[in-house]
Amino acid sequence: MIPHSIVPTALSQVSRRRFLLGGLAFGSMGALASHGLTNTPKASDVTDFLILSEFLTGRKNLNFTLARRYYLGLRDQFPDLPDRITNLSNDIHASGTQTMDDYLSHGPTPDARSTATTIVSAWYLGVVGEDPKKKMIAYSDALMFQAVAGALVVPSYGAGPLAWGSRPEPYMTFKEAPDEH
Amino acid sequence: MSTENLHADVVIVGSGVCGALIGAQLAKAGKSVLILEAGPRVKRRDIVETYRDAPVKLSLANMKLQGAGSPFPSLPHAPSTYGDYLEQKGPVKYNTSYLRVVGGTTWHFGSALWRLLPSEFKLNSLYGRGRDWPIGYDDLEKYYGLAEMELGVSGTDDQDESGAGGSPSPARAAPYPMKQVPLTYMFRTLAEKLSAGGYNPVWEPHGRATRPYNQRPVCAGNNNCNPVCPIGAKYDGSMHCDIAENRGAVIMPNAVVYKLEDDDTGRIQALWFKRPDGSEHKVTAKVFVVAAHTIETPKLLLMSKTRHSPNGIANSSDMVGRNLMDTTGISVTMKTRDPVWPGQGPTELLVFNKREGDFRRNAAQYKIKVRNTTPVSQYAATLLEQGVLGTELDRRIQELSAHTLAWAVDFEVLPDPANRVTLSKTKFDALGLPVPSLYYDLNDYWHAGTELAMQDLNRFSQLLDAEITKKNMKFENRQHPSGTTIMGDNPRDSVVNRDCRAHDHPNLYIAGTSVMSASTCMNPTLTAAALSIRIAERIQREI
Ligand SMILES: Cc1cc2nc3c(=O)[nH]c(=O)nc-3n(C[C@H](O)[C@H](O)[C@H](O)COP(=O)(O)OP(=O)(O)OC[C@H]3O[C@@H](n4cnc5c(N)ncnc54)[C@H](O)[C@@H]3O)c2cc1C
Ligand code: SF4
User: Fold this and answer.
1) N vs C: which end of chain A shows fewer Cβ within 10 Å?
2) Number of H helices, E strands in chain B
3) pTM for this one?
């Protein structure tokens, strides 16, 4: 059993904006840098961050509340985050690619790649920042567990009394399956 | 100093499994029992919450990170051993990590609960190494059985636990209280493939409930046995603390014992403890039991320098703190061709033992175990550090999780008086008490054992169609300290006698793995628990 997310699923606003991927959505990021930072980001900043995160992680249904917390957590630790996001967004646009895998094979700039890694690390590990400022954002919702879901539980969220034994089959499969048999 | 004077029939230092077992049994027999515990009380749900909320998570799979990740409290008067509390003086670091909380270190133990074999009580007479115990397996069999009932052990009956694939051993008067957990895919697969190569899989006996047992639910495969079982399916010492208290024993948390006092007849008259505010309190009793863990017990005895015992209580032999042992180990990582999927169910189960044979004249016996901890977060972090992104990131997390085997080997360590716990001369805790200073080294006997184990692991990699990707031969501490108040018949070279009573003091007992005369390569806690039940029986007869 996958533990249920404790946060509600994304706002409908997000799905509306999702249509805009590749155009307007990233565009508004550019404006952010000049606004100066406030503690409460505009909903649109978070939505833009969410859409960018979905592109970077190849996921379609990331959670708005978590996006907000990752965004705030990252911005706290990296004050230049808005600029970095703008640069990354511009680089993605310039590449003209539609998926993260295509973008990666196209070859991001070193800066863009580094920003992408920072954001993906946060979503995958559920943690933002480096020691000693490491901060926990999500545990069971960390994306890394999705790669093994179906086969392995999130530690401390058991599958149930003595509920194991058959051959583990992860939900996520890949075209080139890891060399089995 | 306080004028408050506490008195009990029996006062016990330490509320770990050993202290709590004795307290529970003596309280049942109607004795007044006071258990003094250095650390605070903790609640399971708080520890689980702290664990889930921690950015760095402690587990047996990331030992190197342990400094950061323990969800258990570290207080000035009872500092955590994660971090730099212990002073290291020897060539080999002895970085053990016991807990100071009500219930003790078993809160985060793996719960492997093994009996020793008859031959393991006779290392010296059989193989000319180390020491013999003054008692044998037959003396302990009954108490092993009682300890298995108390702790609730699940196990596989009728297997040869020596690993030689012979008839069932050691001999048992009764079956395990609970049957073994079901096998996971990985355990089944590995056992099949290695059996085909002539190896004998042994299923580890352990303290996870496989049927509702006392207050414990059935193990639900949370894969979180270390650092904390979220549901209390796995045994820990807090359970006997509850039993002891329900039977009328008093547990006093945040009471750090720093001194025992004897009189000219050798009897212990009193002990002293400090509160976190530094206030000092005296307790008198008929019988005293020190059950403060293998590192802290000798520290307390060495701190107790009195007019009659100028070298410290129970230390006329100068053996207190010496003969520090462990089951110090090595580890090997393999990448398998076929997916094996470690991480389902409990964190350990399958082992390959090499406990008996003439090789023990020249080389340490050992136990090879495969870790079954979900290592997803370590793999994800490493891949991200390497800059892996996109679909490749998910694919590689899955691949590494499914195809990586983490083997760990535990070795017997011989008792050597030079390996020891002393009192630091320069480092003190918030109460002004010296921290333990540790000197530890390993000899050729241990190294010879590692060579034999590596031969097995190389053979494993062939049988499993796997490639060895990493080796760590660098002395991994296995958290199984023993020997520091060693048992023997001769008061000149041992601290306690065959009853775990101090040679020097008729009303002082020492409970814990510190009394073990030989480390063996096995996890020591069931033996310490059996001895504790035996101690309680002795005390019950005396008072
Ligand atoms: C990570 C890990 C995994 C382990 N896995 C296994 C395993 O699978 N199988 C196994 O057999 N063993 C295992 N062990 C070892 C096992 O935990 C110990 O053998 C066991 O806890 C010893 O019990 P004890 O009662 O002697 O000591 P503890 O459980 O350490 O309890 C001692 C208590 O005494 C208290 N105390 C200390 N000093 C004082 C003082 N001065 N005044 C008052 N109180 C004091 C402490 O606070 C503590 O609560 C493991 C240990 C660790 C760290
Ligand atoms: S596997 Fe889970 S439920 Fe079972 S003992 Fe370990 S932590 Fe507890």
Assistant:
1) C
2) 12, 18
3) 0.91
